[in-house]
Design a protein that fits this description.
By secondary structure, this protein is mainly β. It contains 2 helices and 9 strands; from the N terminus they run ββββαββαβββ. The chain has a single domain, classed as Pnp Oxidase, Chain A (Roll). β7 and β8 form a beta hairpin.
Length: 138
Amino acid sequence: MIFDPAASTISFTPTDGIAIVFESLKDINLPSPSVDDLDKTTRTTLAASVQLARSFSPGLLDNGEFTFEIEPQTAADITKVASNIRVEGAWTITFNGVVTVDFEGYMKSYDFPDPMEEQGTMEVTVKVDGDVTIAAVV
């Protein structure tokens, strides 16, 4: 699917607040999950192994982070980001009006637009907390 910023939205609903919609999207990078490795090697398994190799099991899933880039149109757009750093809540990304990605998380970092650029952008990083749900919009 080709990303169409004009047909995509990101909304954030703080745990104790009102939903915020981020507009003027330039780019979105979805969370990249990774799995911890649990070392299950014991003295008994090493003694039984001919190669003395360690053994592992899959551990907990870390859904990582997602980033998005916006082109703030007003100071209010910058404030919308800056005032929500470290705030936990629900995130919904809607791609082209056909697919949604929902998860809990908190805004971890952002960068300010370059004042020397004619139209600067802000990149925002969100830490995903828990499961991610991907669904078709009905």
